[in-house]
């Protein structure tokens, strides 16, 4: 049994192991395919970490002012449904063709919801557990998900199997994608701290892997984007939908999906090394003006890594490796270089992206991918500087109807 807050289970397949996971993995497994720990901690009261995650960035804590007066973007006509047949996609600069298939979202629906407040730590959050509960209500009341097909992990639980430790999060991710079939609609929602760690395999634009922090990150470590891609994206078949919401800092490419879209017109973003490296460019200038050669060399090195990661055929190899025939969509709370906000709406703490996603779809369920992104940004733009991102595992038509 793997109960969540709603007594959801892993279809009676979960067997609780007898001993805890290792304190930290010794290194990446072969071929970047993550091999999960052999076991989870025994059932006992959870001991919360004493310190915040490293490099997680300052969390914005501001009061959300509401959405009165927002002019939502509306398509000129009702957005058409996607073409659900198998389709071919040309890989830029090569003769290779990648097949993919939109999901009809008429099959089984499953969801994994994770909310971590890091209760009792110096940098506790206040809205993440609320986000998980709000998303549960939205999915079950408006999107046709059943409570028995939803697993929820939050760090206000006493029973350890329901706490978002790294081992529990990995098992829950594996449960989510297990036996996935064409037409299925899977949903993953994470609200908690996010951060960045130095990239080890050269596949990141900014030289850093994005990561999320389980509640036991001090003992078990973080979960990086490469690992989450291997667990959540690679096993999925063509025609299976996975919708992901990452309401966390530095989450722009948290799932390593190869296509990211402009909010203005839905076009695919082109990589701009100096735009993405604005912080290092500023450090380079500062180092020059202050006569600090160490700062200058560090900044140049970071920019060089970005150029190397996105140069010529290497960029296309990375993109092709991250493509999937499945229908994977991600909305993230901000760019890789930004933080995401803890908000307060009507006296209740919530993550800004989680609140905006639910609000926009509740007020107008019929949206295209593009108008959904634009309207989420419009809600947040009243108060916050963060810019939510839309990315996908294959090139989508941003003007077709968003379904889940």
Termini distance?
A: 27 Å
Element-level helix/strand string: EEEEHEHEEEHEHEEHHHHEEEHHE
Strand order of the largest sheet: 5-4-6-10-12-15-11
Mean pLDDT: 76
Number of strands: 15
Do you know the CATH topology of the largest domain? Answer: Rossmann fold
CATH architecture of the largest domain: 3-Layer(aba) Sandwich
Q: State which percent range the strand residues make up.
A: 15-25%
Family: Belongs to the peptidase C14B family.
GO molecular function: cysteine-type endopeptidase activity
InterPro entries: Caspase-like_dom_sf, Metacaspase, Pept_C14_caspase
Protein name: Metacaspase-1
Kindly summarize this structure in a few lines.
It is built from ten helices and 15 strands. With 404 residues, it is an alpha/beta fold.
Task: Produce the secondary structure layout.
Blueprint: E1 60-61, E2 87-90, E3 97-100, E4 109-115, H1 128-142, E5 150-154, H2 166-177, E6 185-191, E7 194-198, E8 208-212, H3 217-220, E9 223-224, H4 225-232, E10 241-247, E11 259-260, H5 273-276, H6 278-290, H7 293-309, H8 312-322, E12 327-332, E13 341-345, E14 348-351, H9 352-363, H10 369-381, E15 389-392
Parallel strand pairs: 1-13, 4-5, 4-6, 6-10, 10-12
Antiparallel strand pairs: 2-3, 7-8, 8-9, 11-15, 12-15, 13-14
Helix pairs in contact: 1-9, 6-7, 9-10
Biased composition (Polar residues): 1-15
Biased composition (Pro residues): 18-31
Function: Involved in cell death (apoptosis).
Explain what this protein looks like in three dimensions.
With 404 residues, the chain is of the alpha/beta class. It has 2 domains: 35-271 and 321-392, Rossmann fold (3-Layer(aba) Sandwich), CATH 3.40.50; 274-308. The chain is 27% helix and 17% strand. It is built from 10 helices and 15 strands. The chain has helices at residues 128-142, 166-177, 217-220, 225-232, 273-276, 278-290, 293-309, 312-322, 352-363, 369-381; strands at 60-61, 87-90, 97-100, 109-115, 150-154, 185-191, 194-198, 208-212, 223-224, 241-247, 259-260, 327-332, 341-345, 348-351, 389-392. The strands form 4 sheets. A 7-stranded mixed sheet has the order 5-4-6-10-12-15-11, sandwiched between helices. The longest helix has 17 residues, at 293-309. The chain is globular and about 50 Å long. The chain starts with 59 loop residues before the first strand and ends in a 12-residue tail after the last strand. Residues 1-46, 54-67 and 271-289 have low confidence and may be disordered.
